[in-house]
Amino acid sequence: MTNVAIVTDSTASIPDDLLKSLHIRWVPYYIHRGTETLRDLVNIRREEFYRWLPFARILPKTANPGPGDYESIYQDLASEGANEIVSIHMTSKSSGAFQAAKIGREMILNKIPQLKIEVMDTLNVSMCHGWIVIEAARAALSGQPFQKIIDVVNRLVPKTQMIQTADTLKYLAMGGRIGKAASLVGSILNIKPLIGMRDGVIVPLGKALTRGNAYKMMVEEVIKTAESKGKVKIAYVHAAAMDEALKIKAMVDEKIDVLESIIVELPPSLGVHSGPGTAGICFFPVNDVEDV
User: Fold this and answer.
1) pTM for this predicted structure
2) In 3D, which of 237, 230, 240, 214 has the Cα closest to residue 287?
3) pLDDT averaged over 10-residue windows placed end to end, the chain, 292 residues
4) Domain range list for the chain
5) 5-29+64-156 sits in which CATH class?
6) CATH code for 161-291?
């Protein structure tokens, strides 16, 4: 075990190999589909879910883990010898996970008061949340102390950016996660809306006539954000749309120096809101040695 344990949840969208190699512990979200209660990426997997979703008449409901779920994983880590934990979660403005983890923290501290647990809000989602967890875990593996890892998270929260597009925003609207992008819901069918997240809330970023033009707008934003240093770490995210993610990657690779790239299919807990066919990017600029 590393000196500092890193905890997150399934919405971080981190690939299985990185979860394992970086010793990241995670808690699954819940998906309520009719009378079924499913655990994200445990007894409902991506492929099965995306085959089913286009035919759903009523969208499943998602629910964040409860305080007891977080207390349980903190307890497990303490039993394994951890005495410092950084617990990192998606935006508190769209999910109750951050608050649930804070309550879980108080519950375990009543039993093990010597534990140090910092519960942190990324104000983002998907692999923007995921990148922050990954970099925190890398810092932990390198032996960085508790406060240094907290500093890594705080430094990256305002840097990570998400841009994504889909043929429709109906899934976000139906699930109540549309945020400030509600104005795009009525867009005609051949308009590709672009959305992002600002201060923890989904916002509209523009419209394009085709997916190709939408992807060009994404690349332009990456270039602008990278500034003179010209280096980024980027995740290509999709929901049953690998070919689209690869198209974006090819366009980015032509234009900019990418230090690290990851291709990720969104977990069901996020895919239920974005819908199949969604594709986009989550990235942050690398401007100094501390960001590498």
Assistant:
1) 0.91
2) 230
3) 89 97 98 95 95 88 96 97 97 96 98 97 97 98 97 97 80 51 49 89 89 94 79 96 97 92 97 90 81 50
4) 5-29+64-156, 161-291
5) alpha beta
6) 3.30.1180.10
